[in-house]
């Protein structure tokens, strides 16, 4: 469990909140959250909270794939199982207002 000196990444599947609740019965997943991971024991672990869940989308203006912050690691039951992430898109308005105030 030593800390890595390089940035690590893993490709994890997105999972419906309904399926996530069935798999993680001790965790209530709200609409402002996303479930991901659990595939081949890839997911966030202790110490990863606050880390990014990124997703690629086609930027039609630039005509190329772009990475976007989809979620922020929040909680899970054990390393390698599905994890629950805060859905950043639900907070975009608040983030933009907060940035403008500074």
From TrEMBL:
Tell me which UniProt keywords the record has, alphabetically: Disulfide bond
InterPro entries per record: Peptidase_S1_PA, Peptidase_S1_PA_chymotrypsin, Ser/Thr_Proteases_Immune/Dev, Trypsin_dom, TRYPSIN_SER
Give the GO biological process terms: proteolysis
The keyword Transport appears for this protein: no
Task: Drop me one GO molecular function for this one.
Answer: serine-type endopeptidase activity
Does the UniProt entry include the keyword Disulfide bond? yes
Stored PROSITE patterns? TRYPSIN_DOM, TRYPSIN_SER
Name all Peptidase S1 domain ranges: 1-100
Q: According to its UniProt record, which protein family does this protein belong to?
A: Belongs to the peptidase S1 family. CLIP subfamily.
Question: What is the protein named?
Answer: Peptidase S1 domain-containing protein
